[in-house]
Amino acid sequence: MPDIADRPYDDAPLSASKDSDAAVRIATHEAIEDRGDSLTGWAVTINRPAADLYAWWRDFSNLADVMENVDRVDVIDDRRSHWVVKAPGGTLVEWDALVTEEEEGRLIAWASAEGADIANSGRVTFRDAGARGTVVTATILYDPPAGVIGKLVAKLFQREPNIQVRRDLTRFKQLMETGEVATNAMNREQHEEQAA
Amino acid sequence: MKALTWHGKHDVRIDNVDDPGIVNPRDAIIKVTATAICGSDLHLYDGYIPTMQSGDILGHEFMGEVVETGSASTLKKGQKVVVPFTIACGSCYHCGKHQYSGCENGLPADNQDIARELYGHPMAGLFGYSHMTGGYAGGQAEYVRVPFSDTGPIVIPDGVDDEKVLFLSDILPTGWMAAENAQIEPGDTVAVWGCGPVGLFAVQSAFLMGAERVIAIDHFPHRLELARTFGAETINFEQTATYDALMQMTGGIGPDAVIDSVGLEAHGMFVDNAIDQIKASTFLGTDRIHAIRQAILACRKGGRVSMPAVYGGFVDKFPLGAMMQKGLTLKTGQTHVQHYLPGLLDAIMEGKIDTTFLISHRLPLEQAPDGYRMFHDKQNEVTKIVLKPGQ
Q1: Of the candidates B213, B182, B172, which has an alpha carbon nearest to the alpha carbon of residue B359?
Q2: Do B18 and A187 touch (CB under 8 A)?
Q3: Do the Cβ atoms of A177 and B92 come within 8 Å?
Q4: Which of A141, B70, B140, B234 fits B4 for a cystine, CB–CB 3.0-4.6 Å?
């Protein structure tokens, strides 16, 4: 059983740990359902109240607007949603996700249901940061499968898994702060090509 | 439309490309009426800046007429605007502090990774300046898509000639911020390395901020001559040992503040510069820094170092010991253009600042490739080239 002795005098987030095995062990013990052995995370400060950000995120069907690889999220009921995620080569991977814990305006935790193409779990927290807005922290645990799908997943999460969650949170911040997602497309045709 | 496009080292062309259009609600489309070639465009031309792609449209100093607006733009069709070279959202924490070049939302998310690797943080977007600064199409074209048009562009009153206000887009605010970063006190002596546009505007700005003496350093006689017209004393480093001259001209104290407006592409006749050149040609990340090195050595104890010059990567032989031992303060950064625009437009309209002296050549857009060659080869005569699309 892991305890605080695993991380003496260290307040750093677990996803920044150099000892990923210990980090996963502690994370799954403390806060996240056990759905894999790869832990990643990032945080952004968004110049909006936590309540607004939470409300937008909690309607999971919105997330495809900022998550590059997510084709769509169908909300099934208050706890369950179905995720369809783009993989290279025009294929799709899918899973059902369940909300495992939530606190209005502060926290959403989830875990994939049995049979997921990519098992995953995680939590996103919304912490009031006064005049700077809200600190949004996402921590994700996933199980990179082997074989063909494994290669797709590696691409899905880019070379370094942090990059994907960082880019997704960046787009979330852009949409919430500016009302739009920044693009260098010169016109709508280019914009659609880039999205495809 | 026609646009000036980059295809490789010393290879820029006029190409026919797709017209831009509104993509996001805060966008506007500007019909470019005047656009300048910047000294920093020569860094692209010489192939010093990584993450360029063949076909990229260059140009970050431009102005024009609003021809189309997105649903959330506050501009109106027919307005004349000058567009800041930095793309900043106006809504994030940094924009709120008027640190616009640190905007967190100006760069597309996919274009933020390289800056994060190199600098630790992504910066604001830039028009026409490689993909690590956003991959945005630039203004040396007939039309440009301008994101966040409700916060960046400044509306110019009717009847004002383009050439009077064009340099609000970059070099005038950059020269002004350089002088501001020198934290000038009345009675100060300020030394400015480099009499390009930014250096010359820094000379003007330093006097407006209360400097008693400004000493300008370059090796192009014509540029030194221009610095003199604003009241600067001058040093030609080709015929003078700069450090010795500065010490004697300041009674052994050294300048109270020094400004490096040379940067990455310092053309100096120095041994260490030759070594730097070899490094720059073999590894992009090593910048050549003779000017800043000399400025730091000459600066008086407890003095201020202002660095508007563009640096992109890493430097060797940076005199950190001199910085520490003499207790110098270094202030630098990409220009927070949006912050300075209203005040500088007023100064131009009131006649306190005139920047039109700088323009040495005017060309139609079609001749832009010749303009680049000329600017690159004849830096004494060519102080600024203004391109006029549609003329």
Answers
A1: B172
A2: yes
A3: yes
A4: B140
| Same domain flag for B116 and B180 | no
Answer yes or no: do B7 and B129 share one domain. Answer: yes
A182 and B106 in contact by Cβ < 8 A?
Answer: yes
**Which range is least confidently modeled, A100-114, A146-160, A167-181, B326-340?**
A146-160
CATH code assigned at A164: 3.30.530.20
* A188/B93 CB distance under 8 A: no
Interface test with B, best of A183, A190, A193, A194 (most B CBs within 10 A): A183
Q: Do B276 and B151 have their domain in common? A: no
**Nearest Cα to Cα of residue A165 among A7, A12, A16:** A16
Domain residues for the domain of B378 are 2-169+336-388
pLDDT at position B106, please?
97
Under an 8 A CB cutoff, do B93 and A133 touch?
yes
Read off the pLDDT of residues A21-53 as tens digits, 9 standing for 90 and up.
888 988 998 889 999 888 999 999 999 999 999
Give the closest-approach CA distance of A111 to chain B in angstroms. Answer: 26
d(CA A91, CA A85) in angstroms, rounded, equals 9
User: From chain B, which residues contact A within 8 Å (Cβ)?
Assistant: 18-26, 72, 89-93, 96, 104-113, 125, 134-137, 145, 147-148
Domain presence at residue A25: no
* Of B20, B107, B108, Cβ closest to residue A187: B20
Domain annotation covers residue A3: no
Q: Which residues from chain A sit within 8 angstroms of residue B29, using beta carbons?
A: none
Q: What is the pLDDT, as a whole number, of residue A68?
A: 87
Domain stops at, among B284, B300, B332: B332
- The minimal CB distance from A174 to the residues B19, B105, B135 is found for B105
Tell me how far apart the alpha carbons of residues B308 and B287 are, in angstroms, rounded to a whole number: 15
Domain assignment of residue A149, given as a range? 36-195
Indicate whether A157 pLDDT > 70.
Answer: no
Tell me, yes or no, whether A155 lies in a domain. yes
Q: pLDDT tens, A93-105?
A: 899 999 999 999 9
Among A37-41, A158-162, B125-129, B256-260, the least confident range: A158-162
Contact A187 B148 (CB under 8 A): no
- The CATH number for B362's domain is 3.90.180.10
Residue of B nearest to A47 (CA): B92
- Name every chain A residue with its beta carbon within 8 A of the beta carbon of B111: 184
Return d(Cα B244, Cα B358) in angstroms, integer. 30
Three-class SS state of A135: strand
Provide the pairing of β-strand A38-46 with A70-75.
Answer: unpaired
Per residue in B25-83, pLDDT tens? 999 999 999 999 998 899 899 887 888 999 999 999 999 999 999 999 999 999 999 99
Q: Binning pLDDT at 50, 70 and 90, where does residue B272 land?
A: very low
SS3 B83: strand
pTM: predicted TM-score of the whole model, two decimal places? 0.91
pLDDT of residue B370: 97
Long-range CB contacts for residues A84-89, cutoff 8 Å, separation at least 24: A85/A118, A85/A156, A87/A149, A87/A152, A87/A153, A87/A155, A87/A156, A88/A152, A88/A155, A88/A156, A89/A152
Question: Which residue of B26, B96, B135 is in closest CB contact with A184?
Answer: B135
